[in-house]
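Justification of resources, computational component.

The compute hours requested in this renewal are based largely on the per-chain cost of generating structure records like the one below. Each record pairs the submitted sequence with a full structure-token output. That output is archived, and it is also reused by downstream analysis tasks.
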Amino acid sequence: MGYTHYWRKGTNNDQEQYSAALDEVFKMLRKSPVPLTIEVRKGGDIFFNGAEGDDYETFYLPADITDLEEFAFCKTALRPYDTIVVAALCVIDTLAPGVLDITSDGTSAEWMKGQGFACHTLEQLITVPNTIEDH
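The structure output for this chain reads:
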């Protein structure tokens, strides 16, 4: 299947927490050192991918928590935008804990670059989800 990040809809359905986390993800996307194609649709849904040539699968987060899929994933093939996908997942997990249950083909060591980018960019402590394991 390739290098992929997975998530399931969690038990936390707090729209306010989730919306605040998405706002932080959007702030972070605007400061990405990695070239991205970013689309924010009406209502605040976020879609992004690597820029042409470094793209793979589009990462998607709906603005409305009730629109989260029961199971979703994003294959990045470890392309440069993987750092930003990881950062976004770390932000959601830290600021809206329990909204997503996140797993990955990557190890916690491989997530450190994305986590570090999120911390530096947002100037707050963002952690790697405790569900990310060293295989």
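Residues 8 and 86 are 15 Å apart (CA to CA). The first strand starts at residue 4 and ends at 9.
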